[in-house]
Amino acid sequence: MNPQVLEKPISESTQSITLYDVSWEKFEAIEATLDGIPGVRLVYLDGTLDIMTPLSDEHEKGKSTLGRLLETYFLEKDIRSYTCGSKTIGNIKLGGRKEPDESYNLQTNKDIPDLVIEVVVTSGGVNVLEIYRRIQVPEVWFWRRGQLSIYCLREQEYEQVDRSELLPELDLELLVRCANMQDQYDAVLEFRNALRKQ
Fold first, then answer.
1. CA distances (Å), origin 167, targets 19, 72, 79, 152
2. In terms of Cα–Cα distance, which of 129, 126, 49, 45 is closest to 93?
3. Domain of 119: which CATH number?
4. Listed range (31-35, 66-70, 71-75) with the worst mean pLDDT
5. Are 14 and 94 part of one and the same domain?
6. Among the three residues 16, 31, 53, which one is the final residue of a domain in this structure?
7. When comparing pLDDT for 9 and 105, which is higher?
8. What total number of domains does the chain contain?
9. DSSP classification of residue 124
10. How far is CA 38 from the centre of its chain?
11. If you average pLDDT over residues 120-129, what whole number do you get?
């Protein structure tokens, strides 16, 4: 069966293409064909493949700003952490694979990240939370249009929560306010100074 295609233009600089009925072997062949093309991101789950390109400035700014703020928090609060970045996670056995936008381990370095951050500028046909559920990522954060949504894995399902379970003392209002600042350097300084006053 040939893959079905659904193309969704997002903006002049970004588009998402969703392919359906893609076997794992076809996915790996497409991945190999696109290897080395800058900005292409692939997300695969149970025969559905999202191809997104290129990554927008909004995506990259959101990802890097949140990452810098979190790393500042870890250092200021003496939380042992390890940046996993966008290391690809998942495999054929799980039926899915994805590169997180950012990911972290807390306390010890592990194969599966404790915390994943996804910056959503475009959307495709793959249920990203289902991939992370199968991989057993404890906490997933979505940054979308200047807002943060947090999902914690509870009894094999994700539940949206108001506060991080991994970082329960993190002031999310402060984090979101700083993440929405125009200047990344100023955002990190303001965040750090606010943490030192707590």
1. 37, 13, 10, 12
2. 45
3. 3.90.1570
4. 31-35
5. no
6. 53
7. 105
8. 2
9. -
10. 18
11. 84
